[in-house]
Write a sequence for this structure.
């Protein structure tokens, strides 16, 4: 049942083909680059970069069409339109259909925006890499892995079911493994640390992946489907619109959230992301902005409707705690990329926390704005490292402001954005998140729901820290005097690197609020940020089949929701939300201001000496400096335990299991020897013929020096066989 | 020709063996090409059968041939192929064909080697196609001897020990099977009808036997049959704790023999369970399936942990086989649609990926003459093509989506979860450990600095690249389009499941 395109609407069946082209272009680029890339001029770097340019153009074109439609309930779904790819089986079994998986494309506002963001940022990273990776000994391999990474993320964004989602999710794991370990195979200077980092990243995220897979198993076993939309409606049925949640669903929700914890580097699986810095800087930008970590948050956004309130509380607390925890480590780090890595973990904590408290749209909004400024920051740090001849320690930088003007300005803009300074992109999303946490706390009251207050305090505190350590980075890198030879002779990067920086910096400024003036809203002035207008927090009751039927089908759901919005929402809920928003804005501006002020006090005006603070904090500082010792802890427990256990089992296998087998073998050989002697002495001429033929067979085997155990064993067994059969059949 | 197709597929290698035996032992090249020609012909016929000849919509036996062989014992020459055996017949042809090319550098008595290799193929293919239990047993025994000699003569330093161990373990299994064979034959004649070895006919009778309450030493007839057959086949798979012959056999066997062993011989045990063991004792299967699922889980987890503790590259891969074959048992015991499909697909996908892994080990062993993982490093520098193909093989084996292993494992676990959520939870430990030990092995062989002593290594030769690529193509193909295999076997498995459920209901009087 294909829905014909509405009059004048750009969306029709052909849209699916255009959308399909977005992931398939980088896939094709990967295939060509992986096979013939090394023979192409410039080792083929233009091929994936060009493919990404086209893919980004297509994704942005359709995203603009979605903007123009401006319908929060916009949805294109191949399942609804009767298309799909039957993935496991395509036939019908006699006597019943095979329960196969049929997968397809899901393109709603969220997917449209994310697709455009991923394609654009990824294209810019490709462009940046042309300059940054110049002279790498495996340049062509790098440019074949990068588009595969992008392909997986783009395809993941479009997946309409958990199985496909998981497939691309894992392919991304592979790409991160290959790219983080890129330098482990460097022709000149192979780095073993890169190999370990890639192994660590793959294994840590795989723990989360396995949790996600188990969650998939759980919902599949109960519901028999993995399609997002079918799952929503089944959950709406089972839980009576979210009123009563069975325990297994809470567990399943938590397991699926485990996938996000791994991919989005949430506590306690955060340890891989800082080490992922071993990859070349453009890879870090990909992982931290466009792919990997964004996928984890996107997963949380897609499965939040399957999560019970208890699971949501866990999400909110894990996210909030991660935000604060990572921010404290970021304060003490000196490697410029490590600071950024911990800031990513912290910002991801914000997003996860927002989704947990029900501010799903706010959390996903932050994915988009964060992608812009974090990609800019990472590429900027790449530019700095490139300019300083691969110096990464901020203590050996300083004064780069004058030598690297474009890099400085773009990074400054992005830092203002991440710190949450008003009018920059990050402000709007971060403000929405803090408002969401505050709103949750207010609506649930102060009674037994005190746990819901935790996320708000975590996030406010980490907002202060974020502003502080990000400006610390700017001060230490760009301000003051050069503190090393490399920093003195730093140079600005080439245009292929600065152009992506400029584009991303522009998005870091305008990415939060780039609506063109809309006459209908111009007077009211209270217009929400664009993302929040297009993407609403999903509500489970919107998926209840009975409710949908009562409302008169899918097309009416939006209208029904709007009615509910007007009636109930506006009066009670609206008042709380309004209060929360105005308070939150105050809090977040104050937090950002305080953090920036502190950083000036310490690093610009030097009123406080950071070394003295560190000394005063003593053991605590050391603990933070060593990242709370999680690497050591995991090494001592999980890794060492696993190794010891596997060595124990190996010894058990060799000594005990194999020992038993060998023991039985020796015993058999004795018994066989005895029966052979018996054979020789007692049995007379009639059997001699048999003995001779046995001996002849033995001769042939003796040539390969095997002895005769097997024949004896054979006869022993054969005797047992005959006896057993006779006894058996007599008795049955 | 079509009515003799299965006979042709089975016995063409026997003809090839005769031709090779007629050739002079010094005509090494002629012998090799003769083996390639005959295995190639089998592959061509199997390919035709697989893609065009076989009708996937029909769940029943196709291309059947039925003649009396030993009428006095009601033994028939009865061959046929269905969705259960078709992928394995094709896989066998593929693996033997590649094994011939992988054997190109065997220099010790080439004539005997290839003659035995072809005889082995007769036995393996015959087991998959035989529908008469006696015939099945004959093929099963035919396969045993060539394997014994191939390990015992052309193997490594401890080849005699490994060969005898392999032989005795398998023999023990055969003997148990023989007991069951005779017992079933006699039992089938108990009702005043002609006794029979016909597996399809025996299956019809099996549900009736289950209702017989008489016991022997406290166990019912079908229970005895079940365990005799199960242990017989379990040794072949191999199921914990009958697995210790496998690492020794693998380590000592020459590369192509390891490829055949892991690629197809282990599947015989699993196929035997699907074709003979479970259908002939459906009630006992139903009673003990939970035990089977537990054994499967032990295989998955135990195999993976022990693999992690090995330093010999080949032992790592051998234990990974133990781990991977556990999925079959878990999925089959769950007996859900996805569980069964996943379990049987696992046979095919493990066939391709483990064959690849053993070829990978062979490549490095041919150059370094040792397999100590801690003594390698940096080979990726010198051997980029080897690294590329190895990456495909290793990621296929660790179950990366887009490659074959994932589909089988995911379907197995999704299907098994309905019945055994806890066991699925435990088996995921195996998933994590498999990734860990395979990537750790990859890291130790390929990454980092290249030691001076390996600086002279050449990258893959054309022949080696060909062997690896054949399997790599199948790993990718099945990973992207699992329908290529699943569509062939799903209808037969669905009917298998329906029959089993019916038999279980009849047997338990439900």
């Amino acid at each position: 049942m294909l829905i014909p395109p509405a009059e004048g609407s750009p969306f029709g069946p052909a849209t699916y083909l255009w959308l399909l082209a977005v992931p398939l272009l980088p896939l094709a680029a990967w295939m060509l680059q992986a096979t013939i890339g090394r023979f192409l001029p410039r080792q083929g770097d233009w091929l994936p970069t060009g493919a990404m340019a086209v893919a980004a153009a297509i994704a942005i074109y359709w995203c603009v069409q979605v903007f123009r439609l401006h319908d929060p309930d916009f949805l294109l779904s191949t399942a609804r339109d009767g298309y799909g790819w039957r993935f496991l089986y395509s036939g019908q079994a006699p006597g019943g259909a095979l329960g196969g998986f049929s997968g397809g494309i899901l393109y709603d506002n969220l997917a449209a925006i994310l697709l455009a963001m991923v394609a654009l940022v990824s294209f810019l990273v490709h462009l940046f890499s042309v300059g940054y990776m110049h002279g790498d000994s495996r340049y062509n391999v790098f440019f074949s892995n990068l588009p595969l990474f992008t392909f997986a993320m783009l395809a993941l964004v479009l997946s309409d079911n958990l199985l496909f989602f998981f497939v691309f999710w894992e392919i991304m794991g592979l790409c991160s493994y290959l790219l983080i370990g890129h330098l482990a195979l460097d022709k000149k200077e192979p780095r073993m640390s890169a190999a370990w980092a890639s192994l660590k990243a793959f294994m840590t995220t795989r723990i989360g992946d396995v949790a996600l897979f188990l969650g998939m198993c759980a919902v599949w076993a109960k519901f028999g489907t993995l399609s997002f939309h079918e799952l929503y409606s089944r959950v709406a049925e089972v839980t009576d619109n979210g009123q009563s949640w069975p325990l297994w669903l809470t567990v399943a929700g938590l397991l699926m959230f485990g996938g996000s914890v791994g991919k989005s580097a949430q506590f306690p699986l955060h340890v891989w992301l800082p080490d992922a810095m071993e990859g070349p800087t453009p890879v870090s930008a990909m992982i931290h902005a466009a792919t990997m970590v964004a996928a984890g948050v996107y997963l949380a956004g897609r499965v939040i409707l399957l999560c019970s309130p208890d699971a949501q509380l866990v999400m909110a607390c894990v996210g909030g705690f991660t935000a604060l925890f990572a921010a404290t480590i970021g304060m003490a780090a000196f490697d410029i990329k490590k600071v950024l890595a911990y800031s990513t973990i912290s910002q991801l904590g914000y997003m996860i926390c927002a989704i947990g408290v029900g501010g799903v749209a706010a959390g996903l909004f932050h994915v988009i704005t964060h992608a812009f400024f974090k990609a800019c920051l990472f590429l900027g740090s790449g530019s700095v490292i490139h300019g300083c001849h691969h110096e990464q320690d901020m203590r050996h930088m300083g004064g780069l402001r004058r030598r690297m003007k474009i890099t400085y300005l773009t990074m400054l803009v992005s830092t203002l954005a991440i710190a949450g300074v008003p009018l920059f992109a990050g402000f709007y999303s971060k403000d929405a998140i803090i408002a969401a946490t505050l709103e949750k706390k207010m609506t649930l009251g102060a009674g037994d729901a005190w746990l819901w207050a935790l996320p708000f305090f975590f996030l406010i505190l980490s907002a202060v820290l974020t502003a502080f350590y990000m400006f610390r980075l700017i001060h230490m890198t760009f301000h003051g005097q050069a503190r090393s030879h490399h920093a003195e002779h730093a140079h600005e990067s080439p245009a292929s690197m600065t152009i992506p920086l400029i584009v991303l910096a522009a998005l870091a400024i305008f990415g939060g609020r780039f609506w063109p003036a809309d006459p209908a809203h111009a007077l009211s002035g209270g217009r929400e940020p664009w993302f929040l207008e297009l993407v609403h927090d999903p509500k489970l009751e919107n998926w209840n089949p009975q409710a949908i039927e009562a409302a008169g089908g899918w097309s009416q759901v939006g209208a029904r929701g709007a009615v509910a919005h007007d009636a109930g929402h506006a009066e009670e809920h609206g008042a709380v939300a309004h209060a929360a928003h105005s308070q939150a804005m105050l809090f977040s501006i104050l937090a950002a201001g305080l953090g920036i002020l502190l950083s000036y006090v310490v690093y610009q005006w030097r009123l406080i000496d950071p070394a003295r603070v560190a000394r005063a904090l003593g053991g605590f500082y050391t603990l933070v400096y060593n990242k709370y010792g999680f690497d050591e802890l995991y090494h001592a427990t999980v890794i060492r335990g696993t190794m010891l256990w596997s060595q124990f089992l190996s010894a058990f296998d060799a000594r005990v299991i194999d020992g038993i087998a060998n023991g039985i073998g020796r015993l058999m050989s004795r018994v066989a020897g005895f029966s052979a002697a018996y054979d020789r002495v007692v049995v007379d001429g009639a059997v001699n013929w048999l003995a001779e033929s046995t001996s002849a067979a033995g001769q042939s085997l003796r040539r390969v020096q095997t002895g005769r155990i097997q024949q004896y064993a054979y006869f022993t067994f054969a005797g047992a066989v005959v006896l057993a059969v006779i006894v058996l059949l007599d008795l049955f | 020709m079509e009515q003799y197709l299965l006979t042709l597929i089975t016995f063409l290698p026997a003809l090839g063996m005769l031709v090779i035996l007629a050739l002079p032992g010094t005509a090494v090249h002629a012998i090799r090409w003769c083996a390639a020609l005959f295995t190639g012909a089998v592959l061509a016929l199997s390919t035709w059968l697989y893609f065009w000849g076989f009708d996937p919509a029909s769940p029943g036996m196709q291309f059947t041939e039925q003649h009396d062989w030993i009428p006095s014992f009601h033994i028939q020459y009865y061959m046929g192929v269905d969705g259960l055996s078709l992928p394995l017949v094709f896989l066998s042809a593929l693996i033997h064909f590649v094994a011939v090319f992988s054997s190109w550098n065997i220099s010790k008595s080439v004539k005997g080697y290839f003659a035995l290799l072809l005889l082995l193929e007769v036995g393996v293919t015959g087991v998959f196609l035989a529908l008469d239990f006696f015939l099945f047993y004959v093929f099963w025994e035919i396969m045993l001897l060539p394997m014994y000699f191939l390990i015992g003569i052309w193997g490594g330093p401890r080849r005699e020990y490994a060969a005898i161990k392999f032989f005795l373990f398998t023999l023990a299994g055969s003997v148990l099977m023989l007991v069951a064979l005779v017992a079933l034959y006699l039992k089938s004649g108990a009702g005043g009808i002609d006794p029979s070895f016909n597996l399809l006919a025996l299956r019809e009778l099996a549900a009736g036997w289950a209702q017989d309450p008489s016991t022997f030493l406290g166990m019912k007839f079908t229970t005895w049959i079940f365990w005799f057959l199960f242990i017989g086949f379990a040794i072949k798979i191999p199921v914990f704790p009958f697995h210790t012959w496998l690492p020794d056999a693998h380590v000592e066997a020459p590369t192509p023999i390891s490829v055949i062993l892991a690629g197809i011989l282990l599947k015989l045990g699993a196929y035997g369970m699907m074709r003979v063991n479970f259908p002939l004792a459906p009630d006992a299967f139903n009673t003990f399936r939970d035990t089977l699922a537990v054994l499967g889980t032990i295989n998955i987890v135990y195999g993976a942990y022990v693999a992690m503790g090995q330093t010999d590259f080949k032992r790592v891969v051998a234990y990974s086989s133990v781990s991977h074959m556990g999925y079959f048992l878990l999925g089959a015991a769950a007996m859900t649609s996805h569980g069964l499909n996943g379990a049987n697909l696992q046979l095919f996908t493990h066939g391709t990926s483990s064959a690849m892994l053993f070829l990978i080990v062979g490549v490095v062993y041919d150059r370094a003459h040792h397999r100590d993982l801690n003594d390698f490093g940096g080979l990726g520098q010198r051997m980029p093509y080897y690294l590329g193909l190895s990456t495909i093989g290793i990621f296929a084996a660790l179950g990366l989506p887009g490659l074959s292993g994932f589909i089988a494992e995911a379907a197995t676990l999704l299907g098994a979860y309905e019945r055994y959520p806890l066991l699925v939870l435990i088996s995921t430990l195996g998933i994590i450990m498999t990734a860990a030990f395979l990537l750790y092995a990859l890291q130790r062989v390929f990454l980092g600095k290249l030691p001076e002593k390996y600086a002279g290594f050449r990258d893959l030769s054309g022949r080696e690249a060909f062997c690896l690529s054949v399997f790599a193509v199948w790993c990718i193909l099945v990973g992207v389009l699992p329908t290529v295999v699943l569509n062939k076997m799903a209808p037969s498995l669905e009917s298998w499941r329906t029959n089993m459920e019916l038999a279980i209901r009849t047997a338990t009087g439900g």
Notes: Chain B has one domain: 2-508. DSSP finds 19 helices and four strands in chain B.
